[in-house]
Amino acid sequence: MLGFVLALIGCVGLIVGTIMPQWKMSAYVGDNIITAIAMYQGLWMSCAFQSTGQMQCKVYDSILQLDSALQATRALMVLSIVLTVIGMGVSSMGMKCTNCGGDDKVRKARIATVGGVVFLLGGLASMIACCWFANRIIRDFYNPLTPVNTKYEFGAAIFIAWAGSFLVLLGGGLMSCSCHRRNSGGAKTKYPPSKGRPVSSVGKDYV
């Protein structure tokens, strides 16, 4: 249950981080410290935040005009959300509090383990996307050929996506490990009680 709840919170974080436009924000270095406009860029749109409190956003017109890093990050984040939602459906069928997977405890444990593996795949995809995007920001920031007024740093959305990825990975790992232990423990308790009784009864007959 703890793994499922952590993965659910992580899925919400992934969705919020993917939608938010603050994946990278304009860095206040050099002459940018006196500017009255802060620029934000996300996976789906770019925004300009003025000192008066107004924000104007523009959705990217064409996908083909975007760079490869942004396209790959967008695809990996969408894939991560889809895998996490699928993992939630599979894991819910393998939980003891539901009747979707039948009454067989071994089968339900295996279904829950499969859901945990799907969670791990989804969290890994989003973690790769966030690290790739962050690496691109760092490279452009320290590139001497990049103009000072076009340098960006990390925004709030990438940290939210990082946190969501970590929670999904943690939840998937907990579900996979706990279900494996239940299987091994159940297999050990089946056989020992049935072996001691026939031997003692035969001994009593000879006495």
Distinctive features:
5 strands, Claudin_CS, single chain, disordered C terminus, 207 residues, five-stranded antiparallel β-sheet
Polypeptide structure, described:
GO terms for molecular function: structural molecule activity. Keywords: Cell junction, Cell membrane, Membrane, Signal, Tight junction, Transmembrane, Transmembrane helix. It comes from Polypterus senegalus. It is a multi-pass membrane protein. The chain is an alpha+beta fold and 207 residues long. The protein is built from five helices and five strands, in the order αββββααβαα. The chain has a five-stranded antiparallel sheet. A hairpin with a 3-residue loop joins strand 2 and strand 3. It starts with a helix and ends with a helix.
Give the helices and strands, then pairings.
Elements: H1 2-19, E1 24-26, E2 37-41, E3 45-50, E4 55-59, H2 68-94, H3 105-141, E5 152-154, H4 156-188, H5 196-206
Antiparallel strand pairs: 1-2, 1-5, 2-3, 3-4
Helix pairs in contact: 1-2, 1-4, 2-3, 3-4
Pfam families: PMP22_Claudin (PF00822)
Keywords: Cell junction, Cell membrane, Membrane, Signal, Tight junction, Transmembrane, Transmembrane helix
Membrane topology: Multi-pass membrane protein
Assembly state of the chains shown: single chain
The number of distinct β-strands equals: 5
Largest sheet: 5 strands, antiparallel
**Helix run count:** 5
Chain-averaged pLDDT: 78
- Determine Rg (CA atoms, Å): 26 Å
The coarse overall form would be elongated
Are there runs of 5+ residues with pLDDT below 50, and where? 180-191, 199-207
What's the SSE pattern?
HEEEEHHEHH
Helical content class: 55-70%
Distance between the termini: 54 Å
Residue share in β-strands: 5-15%
SS-derived structural category = alpha+beta
Strand order of the largest sheet: 4-3-2-1-5
Protein name: Claudin
Region (Disordered): 183-207
Transmembrane segments: 72-90, 111-135, 155-175
Family: Belongs to the claudin family.
